[in-house]
Design a protein that fits this description.
Elements (H helix, E strand, L loop, with lengths): L2 E4 L4 H9 L4 E3 L11 H8 L3 E4 L6 H6 L1 H22 L2 E5 L23 H13 L5 E6 L1 E2 L7 E3 L2 E3 L2 E2 H12 L5 E5 L4 E2 H6 L5 E3 L5 E2 L5 H7 L2
Parallel strand pairs: 1-2, 1-3, 3-4, 4-5, 5-10, 6-9, 7-12, 8-13
Antiparallel strand pairs: 8-11
Helix pairs in contact: 1-6, 2-4, 4-5
């Protein structure tokens, strides 16, 4: 089974390649997803599975450079989807928990969605094309580097986010399965402060309004837990 992952230098791609050295990482310089030619380049590799992790993820960049975000996150994803559709390949798309509106938490995959910010809107645009690939999986998730990098964290933002070394194995497990559809991947609900405190000493901070992006992960647990 040949697996490629886009966004070679990204956090998720790096950890997936550590988990399985046979995974081929595709760099932006060689495999620009915004160009139609990406389909020919993928055809030359002939992977069985494409894990599409490349994206413009910084919400500030998305807000300032919206054309870039559209081209990368929506059009680029459509190019990948077209390749998988035309060649009968499996496509695993990394989406975001910000697809949900953040008002109540415990979101199931079947719940109504209302992207929280412009970044999430672009990820929803990507989801739309991915869903047209018969053998697809959309993973809604959130993860951070192995150490929380800031000195303060919000105590009224609830998440299912976890560190990349915890989330990446779950993503690889789903990617290499036969699961088709949308699945939430995360861990138990926790405040960002609780999350940060597990691997760093941080101070409490608060958002003006409380938010809850926690995920219901029953579908993952029922399908993949031993």
């Amino acid at each position: 089974m040949k697996i490629v992952v886009t966004g070679k230098e990204g956090l998720l791609s790096t950890h997936l390649q550590r988990l399985d050295e046979s995974i081929v990482g595709l760099s932006k310089e060689e495999y620009d997803i915004t160009q139609v030619s990406i389909t020919d380049k993928l055809r030359s590799i002939n992977p069985d599975i494409v894990i599409h992790a490349a994206a413009t993820t910084d919400s500030n960049v998305v807000n300032k450079e919206r054309a870039l975000a559209i081209t990368t996150n929506i059009i680029g994803t459509a190019h990948i989807a077209n390749y998988c559709l035309d060649n009968g390949k499996r496509l695993v798309y990394i989406s975001t928990d910000y697809i949900y509106d953040g008002t109540r938490g415990d979101y199931k995959e079947t719940d109504p969605i209302l992207p929280y910010n412009n970044y999430a809107w672009t990820k929803l645009g990507g989801e739309c094309s991915v869903r047209l690939v018969p053998n697809h999986t959309i993973i809604r998730t959130s993860f951070g580097s192995t150490i929380f990098p800031y000195d303060a964290a919000w105590d009224n933002l609830t998440v299912s986010k976890d560190y990349i070394d915890i989330i990446a194995p779950k993503i690889l497990q789903v990617a290499t399965s036969s699961f088709v559809g949308t699945v939430n991947i995360g861990t138990e609900p926790k405040s960002m402060y609780e999350y940060a405190s597990r691997r760093n000493t941080v101070k409490k901070d608060s958002l003006q309004d409380s938010l809850n992006f926690s995920l219901n992960v029953d579908r993952y647990e029922q399908s993949f837990s031993n």
